[in-house]
Amino acid sequence: MLQRPTSFATEVLRYGLIVLVLAFIVFPILWMVVTSFKPPQDVMVSPPRFLFTPTLDNYVHAIWEKNFLFYIKNTLFISVTSTVLVVVAGALAAYSFARYNVGDGHILFFILSTKMFPAIAVILPYFLIFRDTGKTAVGRFLGVGLDQPGALIISYTMFNLPFAIWLLVSFFQDIPRELEHSARLDGLSRMKVLRKVVFPLAAPGIAVTGVFTLIFCWNEFLFAYILTRKTASTITVGVESFFTLQGILWGPVAAAATISVLPMMAFVLLMQRYMVRGLTFGAVRG
Amino acid sequence: MSFSQAWDAGFRAVLIYIGVVFAWLGLVERYFGSQSVSVVVMNVVAVALALAFFLRARSRAVAERARAEAEVRALMEEAV
């Protein structure tokens, strides 16, 4: 009643186009899930078989024979630790850039410039640094060496920090300075203003930054593949381990990929409301 | 029900379907003598649950929209 009337053909065309684009996005995920339930003889047949007897054998193979839960445990520890570091350091840095204009914009641009080269360009220096650091007593104590979680935590933190800072700067810029001035007049210290006024107001933005960082860390492959061998391997490397010399175990690969996708999907669905609020936070500037 | 609401509900319904398949194969199938019967019943249950979820989401969205329209109508009448 309150909407602008549109013709039926326009509506059909619009929704048809949206369905086409969304189906294009969702189809690979559905294919992966369906393949994970297929018995081995139905996986690589042509034409593809959609009617089959579903089985959990691929999941049993992935979880029990390949010990896939070990990779999930590693990934969870590395991703969560890295995300916490990125959000804490990123929020403090972004606040200083937004409020005090540190570096007059030049440092902010320099930080962004570290995202301009591909990860493969820095992987060799990272490899050498962590190889040598891991041999020292401090490196061994902190777990910062090749095939140790510390190496991945530091790499992910360094690589995600610029993105987090850039995302958070705009959120902090949208918070009125007057609120902070009022809190200062009420006798709060700078840190208390930050903790009790600024961070609660920027919470949706911080949540969005945390979610995106967690997703990046969870799905990262290159650093995990080069910097780990066995003890600190993550799920992406775990999925790759199904590519054997005898052939690719497509069923277990699909099962492992489904297992690795499910926690993130559940997390994002739970956080969906906050993410939408965070992404539209500050969309209208006064 | 708007398109985005329908898509969201549909995606969650698919996830419910997959969840039922997981739970059925892991916990329920062993109690069936015939695997083919189990698969048929599993699909019926999964489709029914997914459909029920979607229809519930649809009725909620329709009710919400009707409520919002009534509110706007009341405000417009007030303004006049």
TrEMBL record, chain A:
Membrane topology reported for the UniProt record: Multi-pass membrane protein
Keyword DNA repair tagged: no
Presence of keyword Protein transport: no
Family, per entry: Belongs to the binding-protein-dependent transport system permease family.
UniProt-listed GO biological process terms: transmembrane transport
Residues spanning the membrane: 12-34, 76-95, 107-130, 150-172, 197-227, 247-270
Record keywords: Cell membrane, Membrane, Transmembrane, Transmembrane helix, Transport
Domain annotation ABC transmembrane type-1: ranges: 72-271
Locations listed in the record: Cell membrane
Protein name: ABC transporter permease
PROSITE patterns assigned: ABC_TM1
Classification via CDD domains: TM_PBP2 (cd06261)
Database matches in Gene3D superfamilies: MetI-like
Gene Ontology CC annotations of this record: plasma membrane
Main localization, broad class: membrane
TrEMBL record, chain B:
Keyword Membrane: yes
Transmembrane segments: 9-27, 39-57
Highest taxon of source: Bacteria
Keywords in alphabetical order: Membrane, Transmembrane, Transmembrane helix
Name under which the protein is recorded: Uncharacterized protein
Organism, scientific name: Manganibacter manganicus
